[in-house]
Write a structure and sequence with these properties.
six-stranded mixed β-sheet; MoeA_linker/N; metal-binding; MoaB/Mog_dom
Length: 392
C-alpha cells in the first residue's frame, strides 16, 4: 500500500500527452488544445473602425463642422471629407480614409447640417486601426493554446472555420457486478440500480471529454477478461468500477494480470478508495476504482482527473487546492488520510454528514472535498483546512 503523494506522483510520471492530431470544425473545438499555430488570414479589424457612436471628422482649425453624410456598421461606401467636413458614424462602422478622428456623440451639438464639438480632439481618437488585434499573416493563436469560448469566438471573427487540435482520449467505462440493474427496471430483492457509469460519464462530459463508451460485465472471469482485453486494445483510458478487491467474485485484478497489464500501484492509504488500481498496457492507462459510488467519484477527481489533463498536455493538471476556515467539527477515525465531502463558499467550508463511501446523497450536495492528513484526528470550528474545489 502506498501513500497518496506516491500515488499522485506515479500517475503524473506514467501518463504522457497523447499528441494525436485531428482537424475539427471550430464550433466543436471547445476544450481542445491547438496542435499547430494559427496564422490570421485577415487584418482584424479589417478596416479602420469606429470605436463608438459619434461623428467622423476631417480636422481643421475650428470647432464647427459641416455634416455631409452617414456611415453605419456594414456600409461599404467611402464618403470623401474635406477639412471641416464630418459624417455621422456608428460603432463598428468603417471610418472613411479622409476622416482622421471620431468625436463621441455626447460631446457634439447639432444644428441641421452643422455640428459643433465641445473641444479639440487628437488625430486618431476613437478609431480602431486596421490590424489592431492581429495583422494578416501574424500568429493569431499559438500551438498549445486551449480553445476557450473566447478563443473560438476570436478565431471565428477571423473567418476561420476549423482547427488542427490534439485529440482527446477515448475512454471506456466498465461496471461490474451481478447485483447491478438499469434504472427503470423493477427492483428485485438483492439488486441495486447501477449508478457509477452514469455518474462517471457525466463527470467526463462536464470536463468536455465526449468520446466515452459504457460497458457492463457480469461477475464472470472469462467475460471480465474478454471485455477488458477488447476495451484496452481500443481506448486510451479504461476506467473500471468494482471487482478490484479480494472477494471470491472480484475478477478484475486477476484478469488485468493475465492480460499483462503493468501494475503501477494497487491500494492507496486513503479513505475512501483504498482498493484503487492504476496500471498501463502499452499506451493505454487503466484505473480500477472501488465499486462504492462515493469512493469511485473521489478517486476519479483525485487521480483520473490528473491523467486526463496530462493526456491533453494541459499546464494545470490538478484541481485547485485552497485554504478555508472550517464551519464544522469532525472526528476522523483511523490513521488513513481522508477526502471529506463538503460545501465551500467564500473562504469557508462545511463538512457534511454522511461520509460513508457508498453514500452519494451527500456528494450530490458537495462542491468540494476537504483533505484531512493522517496526523490530524480532530477538526474544530475555525480550523484552517485544505479544500479541493470540484468542477461545477
Amino acid at each position: 500500500m502506498i501513500t497518496i503523494n506516491e500515488a499522485l506522483n506515479a500517475v503524473k510520471i506514467n501518463i504522457s500527452p497523447l499528441l494525436k492530431e485531428a482537424i475539427k470544425p471550430l464550433e466543436r473545438c471547445g476544450g481542445y488544445q491547438l496542435s499547430k499555430d494559427i496564422a490570421s488570414p485577415i487584418n482584424m479589424p479589417p478596416f479602420r473602425q469606429s470605436a463608438m457612436d459619434g461623428y467622423a471628422l476631417n480636422l481643421h482649425n475650428d470647432l464647427s463642422y459641416t455634416l455631409i453624410g452617414e456611415v453605419k456598421a456594414g456600409d461599404n461606401h467611402q464618403p470623401t471629407l474635406k477639412p471641416g467636413d464630418a459624417v455621422r458614424i456608428f460603432t463598428g462602422a468603417p471610418v472613411p480614409e479622409t476622416a482622421n478622428t471620431v468625436m463621441m456623440q455626447e460631446k457634439v451639438a447639432t444644428n441641421g447640417s452643422k455640428i459643433t464639438i465641445e473641444n479639440d480632439v487628437p488625430i486618431g481618437h476613437n478609431i480602431r486601426p486596421m490590424g489592431e488585434q492581429v495583422k494578416t499573416g501574424d500568429i493569431a493563436l499559438k500551438k498549445g493554446t486551449k480553445l476557450t469560448p473566447a478563443a473560438i469566438g476570436y478565431l471565428t471573427s477571423l473567418g476561420i472555420t476549423e482547427a488542427a487540435v490534439y485529440k482527446k482520449p477515448s475512454v471506456a467505462l466498465i461496471t461490474t457486478g451481478n447485483e447491478l440493474i438499469e434504472a427503470g427496471e423493477p427492483l428485485a430483492y438483492g439488486k441495486i440500480y447501477e449508478s457509477n457509469s452514469k455518474m462517471l460519464l457525466n463527470a467526463l462530459y462536464n470536463l468536455k471529454f465526449y468520446d466515452v463508451t459504457i460497458h457492463k460485465v457480469e461477475d464472470d472471469y472469462i467475460k471480465t477478461k474478454n471485455k477488458l482485453e477488447t476495451v484496452i486494445n481500443n481506448n486510451d483510458l479504461v476506467i473500471v468500477t468494482g471487482g478490484i478487491s479480494v472477494g471470491d467474485y472480484d475478477f478484475v485484478g486477476k484478469a488485468l494480470k493475465e492480460l499483462q497489464v503493468k501494475e503501477v500501484f494497487y491500494k492507496v492509504k486513503q479513505k475512501p478508495g483504498k482498493p484503487l488500481f492504476f496500471g498501463k498496457k502499452e499506451d493505454t492507462a487503466i484505473f480500477a476504482l472501488p465499486g462504492n459510488p462515493a469512493a469511485a467519484l473521489s478517486c476519479f477527481y483525485a487521480y483520473v482527473y490528473i491523467a486526463l489533463q496530462k493526456m491533453m498536455n494541459y499546464n494545470t493538471i490538478e484541481l485547485p487546492r485552497i485554504k478555508a476556515k472550517s464551519m464544522s467539527e469532525f472526528v476522523k477515525r483511523g490513521d488513513r488520510p481522508q477526502f471529506l465531502k463538503a460545501i465551500y463558499n467564500d473562504n469557508q467550508v462545511e463538512i457534511l454528514e454522511g461520509q460513508n463511501s457508498s453514500m452519494l446523497q451527500t456528494f450530490a450536495l458537495s462542491n468540494a472535498l476537504v483533505f484531512v492528513p493522517e496526523d490530524v484526528s480532530i477538526i474544530n470550528l475555525n480550523d484552517e483546512l485544505e479544500v479541493i474545489v470540484l468542477p461545477v
